[in-house]
Amino acid sequence: MQDSRKFNFVEGFDAFGIPDALPKMPLTLTYRNSSIDVSGLLDTGASVNVLPYSLGIQLGAVWEEQTMAVTLAGNLASIEARGLLVSAQIGDLTPVRLVFAWSQSDNVPLLLGRMNFFLEFDVCFYRSILTFEVRPKSININ
């Protein structure tokens, strides 16, 4: 197992159609016996991880079985969401459990936010060279 992974920013467009580079990262999500390969946007401003509806369905999750309501904020405030706990693996790093606000909409990106992606991983952004590094959370706190 490696102790970190490096990724390049992905060229794309921002909400206004202006070209930009985004910190998107491939990962594998697993729920029960289903796995999917996805790309998530690392968002230090997002309070929670957000999962689009169709990805939850692809994982085999059933909306009616998820009883924990999650309140989204900002431009996602009008979208109903429910908590969904999945396993996530980044490359050959040890899998972790991530909690997602599974939205009842596909008009949302897969977001990796403060709760709980940034609690499980330390991330260093090197925006000037369009790379970022992800490593499992530090266990040594001085």
Brief descriptors of the model:
seven-stranded mixed sheet, 142 residues, mainly beta, three-stranded antiparallel sheet, 2 helices, 7% helix, 12 strands, globular
Helix count? 2
Strand content: over 45%
Tell me the radius of gyration. Answer: 15 Å
* Percent helix range: under 10%
Alpha-beta classification: mainly beta
Distance between the termini: 25 Å
Order of helices and strands: EEEEEEHEEEEHEE
Low-confidence stretches: none
Shape: globular
For the biggest sheet, the summary is: 7 strands, mixed
How many β-strand runs? Answer: 12
Report the mean per-residue pLDDT as an integer: 94
Explain this structure to me?
By secondary structure, the protein is mostly beta strands. It is 7% helix and 46% strand. The protein has 2 helices and 12 strands; from the N terminus they run ββββββαββββαββ. The chain has helices spanning 53-58, 117-120, and strands spanning 5-8, 10-13, 19-22, 24-31, 34-42, 49-51, 69-70, 81-89, 96-103, 111-112, 121-126, 131-136. Strands 4, 5, 6, 7, 8, 9 and 10 form a 7-stranded mixed beta sheet that branches. The protein is globular. The relative contact order is 0.25. The mean pLDDT is 94.
